[in-house]
Design a protein that fits this description.
This protein has 359 residues and is of the alpha/beta class. It has helices spanning 2-9, 62-75, 109-117, 151-162, 174-182, 224-235, 239-248, 259-263, 265-285, 307-315, 333-336, 345-357, and strands at residues 15-22, 26-35, 38-48, 54-55, 58-59, 84-89, 95-102, 128-137, 141-150, 167-173, 193-199, 204-210, 213-220, 292-298, 318-321. A five-stranded mixed beta sheet has the order 3-2-1-6-10. Strands 13-12-11-14-15 form a five-stranded mixed beta sheet, sandwiched between helices. The chain has a three-stranded antiparallel beta sheet with strand order 7-9-8. Helix 6 packs across helix 7. The radius of gyration is 21 Å and the shape is globular.
Length: 359
């Protein structure tokens, strides 16, 4: 309580960090405020994106999307002319993977890494921007986390934001932002690998996290929107009613007489198969790949009733819902009342980066 009082009365002595999560169907924005060692959730907002504005991360309706962005940022109460933000890159266009490279001499490291990276990317060097971080050294190898995104995507995002007087101080890969918000900065190696399952509205992302870093990411052609449409069609109800049915009945074998569980059986089968494929890929293609000890659910789809129990039953792995707010103080009741799921994990992770990159 004393920390919150200090936040209210010393609010202008600290600094803000703004994160903007872009997707085809919704924009989410978070403003965090840091006062001393404490981080507070200051504002949290979202706005729906009409169909066709953004398709697979590619902004088709530029001016209309800019209007949405301006409206959303305005809701955060930003009045300063220095509007620095951290923005997510579209997951479908990004590449993030740990790679192993024979340990080069220090003087040659950068050149060797840049050369080896493109053995893993199915694109030409002049088509993408790349970034990498050397994660660990061993006697014979170094392990490098590589991120990449097509230049036309990055350039278009930068242009779209700067032309409306927003300064994207960083463009972040979505998986990195999610990890930043839901996991501690370091975890015990003895905890085993973790699989983060981001059940989004338009797609499902898998993040394999181990040894305190992301090992790789995958995207599945499964989405909360598709799930809701299946329910609406089978039950003969509208989209809103289908959304409610998903939360009230979900995968529960008893509620609604188990009708939804039966309707969604193909979906859960595909999801289970995708998880098993990711785990086997990690164990079979990574030198230090090991068993997954925990699955962490995030995204709006994690609110589907009984999904935790269903995954536990099918996979025999511990399953929990992510808490993207544990690093920040949400003691403002007006704000915390808006936080009812983990859909803002990416936006919070972006805002956390903004606090470190912008100050």
């Amino acid at each position: 309580m004393l920390d919150y009082i200090k936040y209210k009365f010393q609010k202008f002595g600290g600094y803000f960090g703004i994160g903007l999560d872009m997707s085809d169907s919704i924009l989410r924005a978070v403003r965090l405020y840091k006062c001393g060692s404490k981080i507070f959730l200051d504002k949290i907002e979202y706005i729906r994106v009409p169909d066709g504005y953004i398709i697979q991360g590619d902004i088709k309706e530029v001016e209309k999307t800019q209007d949405l962005i301006n409206t959303l940022i305005g809701r955060l109460g930003i009045s300063t002319s220095k509007k620095e933000i951290v923005v997510s890159l579209p997951e479908v266009h990004t590449f993030l993977k740990m790679i192993q490279i024979a340990n080069p001499d220090n003087a040659k490291a950068a050149g060797v890494i840049n050369e080896k990276i493109f053995q893993y990317l199915p694109v030409l060097p002049d088509e993408v921007y790349i970034d990498y971080q050397i994660v660990s050294y061993e006697i014979e190898y170094i392990y490098v986390l590589v991120g990449a995104c097509p230049k036309h995507i990055v350039d278009s995002y930068v242009k779209i934001f700067t032309s409306i007087n927003l300064i994207p101080i960083s463009l972040d890969i979505e998986a990195a932002a999610i990890i930043r918000s839901i996991l501690p900065d370091t975890t015990s190696y003895n905890e085993g690998a973790k699989l983060i399952l981001d059940l989004g509205l338009t797609r499902t992302g898998l993040i394999l996290y181990d040894y305190n870093t992301i090992q790789f990411t995958l995207s599945l052609p499964l989405s909360g929107q598709t799930l809701t449409n299946i329910i609406a069609k089978e039950l003969g109800v509208d989209y809103t009613a289908a959304e409610q049915a998903k939360k009230i009945c979900g995968f529960d074998p008893v509620k609604c007489q188990g009708i939804l569980r039966e309707i969604l059986s193909d979906y859960i089968t595909q999801l289970i198969d995708g998880i098993k494929h990711a785990v086997l890929f990690y164990q079979g293609h990574f030198v230090h790949g090991r068993a997954v000890s925990q699955i962490i659910l995030t995204g709006g789809g994690s609110a589907c009733l009984n999904i935790i129990e269903t995954l536990k039953e099918q996979l025999n792995i511990d399953v929990i819902i992510a808490n993207p707010y544990y690093k920040i103080d949400i003691s403002n009741n007006d704000i915390s009342s808006l936080v009812d799921n983990s859909s803002f994990a990416t936006a919070i992770g972006l805002a956390l980066r903004a606090l470190s990159d912008g100050n």
